[in-house]
Amino acid sequence: MDYRTYLKNYPDKDGKFGKFGGAYLPPELEPAMKEITDAYLTICHSSKFITELRRIRKEFQGRPTPVYHCERLSEKLGGKCQIYLKREDLNHSGAHKLNHCMGEGLLAKFLGKKRIIAETGAGQHGVALATAAAFFGLECTIYMGEVDVAKQAPNVARMKVLGTNVVSVSRGQKTLKEAVDAAFEDYCENYKDTIYCIGSAVGPHPFPMMVRDFQYVVGEEAREQFKEMTGFLPDVVTACVGGGSNSIGMFLPFINDPVEIVGVEPMGLGEKTGDNAASMTYGSEGIMHGFNSIMLKDEKGEPAPVYSVASGLDYPSVGPEHAFLREIGRVKYDVASDEEAIDAFFKLSRYEGIIPALESSHALAYAMRRAKAGEAAFILVNLSGRGDKDVDYVIEKYGTGEKYKDF
Description:
Blueprint: H1 6-9, E1 16-17, E2 20-21, H2 30-43, H3 47-61, E3 67-69, H4 71-76, E4 82-87, H5 98-111, E5 115-120, H6 124-136, E6 139-145, H7 146-151, H8 153-161, E7 165-169, H9 176-190, E8 194-196, H10 207-230, E9 236-240, H11 245-251, E10 260-268, H12 279-282, E11 284-288, E12 291-295, H13 320-327, E13 332-337, H14 338-352, H15 358-373, E14 378-383, H16 391-398
Parallel strand pairs: 4-14, 5-6, 5-8, 6-7, 9-10, 9-14, 10-13
Antiparallel strand pairs: 1-2, 3-4, 11-12
Helix pairs in contact: 3-5, 5-6, 5-10, 6-8, 10-11, 14-15
């Protein structure tokens, strides 16, 4: 495949990445999705929209975020491999999520909508969308699983302070999948004055394309910054993968380069169904939430229960573009367990003074594993979020990390 033309060819006019993606919708939502698609394809080429988004990124979000060399951590891991971080934790609101939320907020204003809604797992997308709603003067409702509400209390508080209505979803597994279900139900009833701002590169077309386009800035900045810092491209580029928004934005600017690209899924507690959320590793093709991708299934072929210590990764499917990138052999997918992620969480905190999100800790854990083995000279990790939201939960469950201080 000629990756130089990749972005022009994918998705196709039907929103497909090969056999993945598309829009599998109830008839009542088809006009709403067509409205969003037409509007996005109009404004994404508008100089006024692009100029305004660039202004917001610079003056409000604080972009570009820096690339940082983890010298002490790299030395502790043997020194043969150097780990670098794309510091999306320094993006306003603490994660990469604001990159697409501000774009979706602008789209809502363009469409004349008065209300935006979304789901959230770790709460970072909820905080980012609540931030965008406050910025643009829009009403906002966020759906969040009851389990995640308890785990992510600081982010729930932040959303409420920003003026957002947080709805706790108490059915099923009470996590991200159920939050998405509830948000879709709201959208079906209220789409005339509401836009659903999906929190990852998932859902029916055009959402995977839109989120990818808004997140592309992460990898675009990182590629230029890394080359300026070192004179080279990294050997490995990696990011965590739940639905896949931070990773798709990080990966695509490197797609035509001689660089190994690796997505890292949550292995959780192990291989048993319900103990992990590694859909690319253990899943199979299936349709969920309006798109065709790879998903974890139970014995009946329904979405399986999932688990991860990182609330933002416990989703039983993955963005369709990730499924396609694996199928064509351009991106590899690996796993990191809860234990590895917690170890990475504490080591980055103790040796670099950076407290990472548990989601991002999975990608860092993979990079640390590769560094210990001396398999690459330069590894670039997308540190997609900060760990303020996770500190209370981590201390309650794991203490202050005394057992993780040694290598």
